[in-house]
Amino acid sequence: MKPRIVIALGANALAKWSERLHAALPEADIVTRESGRTTVDEHATPADYALVWRPDPSFFAEQTRLKAIFNLGAGIDALATMPGFPRSVPLIRLEDAGMARPMAQYALAVVLRHACRFDEYARCQADHRWAPRRPHAPGELEVGVLGLGAIGRVVAETIAGQGLRVRGYARTPGDVPGIRAFAGGAELPAFLTGLHVLINALPLTPDTTGILRREHLERLADGAHVVNLARGAHLNNDDLIALLDAGKLGGATLDVFTTEPLPPDHPFWSHPRITVTPHVSGVTMLDESVQQVAHKIRSLERGEPVSGVVDWTRGY
Question: Is 266 a known active-site residue?
Answer without folding.
Answer: no
